[in-house]
Specification:
Elements (H helix, E strand, L loop, with lengths): L1 H40 L20 H18 L7 E7 L10 E10 L9 E10 L2 E7 L4 H13 L6 E4 L2 E4 L11 H19 L1
Antiparallel strand pairs: 1-2, 2-3, 3-4, 5-6
Helix pairs in contact: 2-3
Length: about 200
């Protein structure tokens, strides 16, 4: 009897341990996903899945969505003071995912300058992640931070997305520009990279 009880307790402990390890693994996948998505959001790349921002209209073409994502990215770099420095993405889940209890997980991020790694300030609940079809997906972005929201609005109003290249359905207009590389601002450099990447995507498709 005692032997059976010990065996049952051992099996139960083993199962609970496996369950805990599985849950920890799934929750770690959330952080890995958001880290990868945030890195993909940088203007050196165009995100495969473009998420609409709630601060703007919800109906977008891919170009409009990419433009808004670019504005958000520049605003994030500006928010964290890393427009002109290398940085590391820090990701933090705001709660633990438990099957059948929590469907959506809010995730906060921080972009930390490699020159000042001790100063970590998160933008809370920027990304919402959900488990769909057995896989984690970033489903939305909420811009609730007032300073970030102000930066997004400012950059929407003051950055000329079509300064270098203008896209019109089947036509692309390359605007005549003389680039003085010593006078380009950080934002202008990012805009040139973004416009070039968008042009390459248009040509490929």
């Amino acid at each position: 009897m005692i032997k059976n009880t010990v065996t049952a307790l051992f099996v139960m402990t083993l199962l609970l341990g496996l369950l805990a390890a599985s849950l920890l693994g799934e929750n770690h996948k959330i952080e890995t996903l958001v880290n990868g998505y945030t890195n993909q959001l940088t203007v050196d790349n165009l995100p495969e899945a473009c998420l609409p921002m709630q601060i703007t209209a919800t109906s977008h073409t891919r170009e409009q969505c990419l433009n808004n994502n670019f504005i958000l990215n520049v605003s994030l770099l500006e928010y964290f003071g890393v427009l002109e420095s290398d940085f590391t993405v820090h990701v933090r889940r705001e709660h633990f995912w438990i099957p059948f209890v929590v469907d959506t997980v809010n995730v906060s991020i921080a972009l930390v300058s490699d020159n000042n790694a001790d100063d970590v300030v998160f933008i809370k609940n920027l990304f919402q992640v959900n488990r769909m079809g057995g896989h984690w997906q970033v489903i939305s972005m909420n811009i609730n931070d007032e300073r970030l929201k102000a930066l997004v609005v400012f950059n929407q109003q003051n950055l000329d997305i079509e300064k270098y290249i203008k896209f019109n359905e089947d036509n692309v207009e390359l605007k005549t520009q003389t680039l003085n590389l010593t006078r380009l601002t950080a934002k202008e450099r990012y805009l040139i990279k973004f416009s070039t990447n968008k042009l390459l995507e248009y040509i490929a498709n």
